[in-house]
Predict the 3D structure of the following.
Amino acid sequence: MSYRILIADDEAEIRSLIRLYLENENYEVLEAGNGLEALECFNKKKPDMCILDIMMPEMDGYSVLKKIRETSNIPVLILSAKDADAEKILGLNLGADDYISKPFNPLEIAARVGSQMRRFYRLGAGDKKAELVTFGDLKLDPDGCTVFKNEKSLELTTVEYKIMKLFMSHPGKVFTKQQIYEYAWGEDFIVADNNIMVSISKLRTKLSDDPNEYIKTLRGLGYKLG
């Protein structure tokens, strides 16, 4: 897989130098000459990592970083002529993963990019944020193991969350009691049939005053969402 790296710097020579070394490592490289271009490229091209200069026209690197962190946790390396500790701390506090000062060795840039990419994508220390699963006014956050209704989180047990994840990942699909039990309890056979009925009943109460608004019962078949 070829990962995509965005380089945002107002100096074309610096972008070209970094591009040369990153392409040598088989990365796909995107370029932006100012902060607004960087943010537009980020939104449209969805890079896997960003290298941001701090002092850029239109929008500085810190502002771009803050915007990126509103929607993404991809690795970000701050690149700047400013080497004061306060500047580094600010960048890290805003969500940067690494910081390197100018002048720099392009081999070090390539090495740090490689380190961040391995940590983030291959070693599992920071997998890409899982997408929210939605159904009507319900949202399920796989990373936080939380279900929201109208943006308000529901207090669910582990079993109840697993049942909702099963239903919301396959809206309209009918699941038998056996399938629900295997997924939510992790057992190959139903130990207590009443456990499923009680959990479904509690879920319905937490979801709505109308017990049939979300989870439907199909007699002799099972349950479904919607």
User: Anything to note?
Assistant: DSSP finds eight helices and eleven strands in the chain. The longest strand covers residues 4-8. The chain has two domains: 4-122, 133-225.
